Structures are given as structure tokens and as C-alpha cells.
User: Fold this.
Amino acid sequence: MVSPVTVVKSEGPKLVPFFKATCVYFVLWLPTSSPSWFSALIKCLPIFCLWVFLLAHGINFLVSHRSASRILAGLIFSALGDAFLIWQEQGYFIHGLLMFAITHILYSSAFGMKPLDLKAGLLMGVVSSSCYAFLYSYLSGPFTYLVAVYIALIGFMGWRAVAGVQLCNDLWTWTKLSACVGAMLFMVSDLTIALNEFCFPVPYSRFIIMATYYAAQMLIALSAVETRDEEDFRKRS
Assistant:
């Protein structure tokens, strides 16, 4: 297994644009009350940088490793979702929800179905069901079933990410752990959105949502490069 130090030295420089773009978003902190294409660009810029991060590993790598290409596709739909949510007050919230639902399907496919780990699946099922049970009384109209479907999809994605870690069997890798933590942060971000949108105002909600979201996307993008890092490590050895 490639050591984390080796990975940081290899991948860290490629992530510098992402960190800079994230800083730009938080420094500018454009008001959500006046959506514009500029604010959409600033919000999506860190995700664009993660596109570049994956593309920097080479088109051949993405073509030959389906999990990496699916994560890239997920990042593309995430950017579309981010753009739609800029105009959520103008009626585009459901459009953003759909884009992120597709993202979770792509991420789940990238993480794969092996190992199955039914215990992790049961745990994520309980967590997801509990979240929906809490939100249910606040939902109305199409959101009653749309949120249910969305929670099921992100819960499934979380299950596949957690199942891949296998800490007890000592079969984990740093990238699988990265995917797991990223999926959990994504769930925290989306739960905060749901609470703030449907239930009650969450203090510092926008900061919590975006900080956990950007961290989640970065960690999930990192999980795509495991095979390339192992190949490079063998070549240098």
C-alpha cells in the first residue's frame, strides 16, 4: 500500500488550485439574495478545479479506470447542481436536487458493490430512515417523496463508501478511507441543507454546508487516484 506521505507529495500540488478557489469563495462570500452568473462561477470554481485535478492524471487513466471516470462525471453533475441552487429561490431547487441525485448514483457506482458489508448497509439504512422520519412532518407536496428518494440515494452512496474501508480486516487503503469520510461529510452538508430549507434556520448554515461540501468533494475526488498512485509507486521502486 502506498504511504500517505507519498500520496501527499504526489497529489498535494495538483490540489493547490482547488484550495485557492475555495478560499476565493469564502473570502468573497457573495450574498445569496442576489444570484448571478458570477456568483455561480465562484461557487462552482472549486469543483471545476477538481475536474482539472482528475484530468491531470491523464485521459487514458480515466478511460481505463471506470471508477475514476464516474467520479469525474459525478463532479460534472455536482457543478450543475451548484449552479441550479444559486437560483433555488427562483424555482430551481428541484433541478439542483436532481443533479445531486445523479451525482450520488455515479459515486455509488464508482465505489462498487464489493465488499457488500450488510452491517454497514443496515447502519446507513437506520440513519437514513431516522433522518427522513424527522423531516417528514416538515415536508409537503412533491418534496414528500423527492426527499425520500434523495435520502435513499445518498444513504446508499454512504453505505458503499463505508463498506469499502474494512478497518477490522486491515484491508483499508487511504483512498477508501478518503471516500468514506467524504461521503459522511456530504451527508452532513445535505442534512444541513434539508434542516435549513424545510425545518428551521440553522446557525451558520451556509458556512457549514459549503465547508463540509467542498471537503467532501475533494476527498471523493482523491479516492479516484488510488490505482494511479500505486502504478507510479511501483515504477519508482
About this structure: Residues 229-237 have pLDDT under 50 and may be disordered. Residues 174-199 form the longest helix (26 residues). Residues 56 and 113 are 27 Å apart (CA to CA). The chain is about 75% helix and 0% strand.
